[in-house]
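Today's session is about reading a structure prediction critically. Students often jump straight to the picture, but the first step is always the sequence itself: look for stretches that repeat, for charged clusters, for runs of hydrophobic residues. Only then move on to the predicted structure, which in these notes is written as discrete structure tokens rather than atom positions. Here is the chain we will use throughout the hour.
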Amino acid sequence: MSFPEFRTKRLWLTKITSSDVESIFELFSSPDVVKYYDLEVFNERAQAEQLIRLFESRHESSLGIRWAIRPKETGQLIGTCGFNSWSEKMRNATIGYDLKPEYWNRGIATEALFEIIRAAFAGLLPCGALHRIQADTIPGNVASEKVLLKLGFKEEGTRRECAYLRGSYHDMKYFGLLRTDFKEK
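Below is the predicted structure for this chain, in token form.
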């Protein structure tokens, strides 16, 4: 299946390519972006190249998919979103997203995620129609939780010390969205 691309009112959601190395490096070299992420701050462009290859490999292997988030007026990558993993058999997926700090609090993440969730529940992705989408956040990541709640996700609980990041264990809050709960605009 070819890489699905989408358009929203303000955004293009496209494939991340090798021409995005500089933008990916800028994104993940920001301590604010990776504060609640399972990545260390990038300090060399080779890390961005490796991440792009990982995104390509997940898509090629039908294990997940990641889009570049691009404002229509510039076409520059300002963030990424997608499904880190999915199970065609179980009809569920885990969603993830990030955005350059100068674009926070503008509804961009919500707009991008709404479109890929709509596509996933409609069966427009290589994994087929999903029934459930889940997300994990580290307690304290209030902005990410607000995005999820705006999209209709329900907080389902906390897994105690299930993540090991930057030398310590962290709890993870988990959220779920069922196709039957998703409200199309």
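Discussion point for the tutorial: The radius of gyration is 16 Å.
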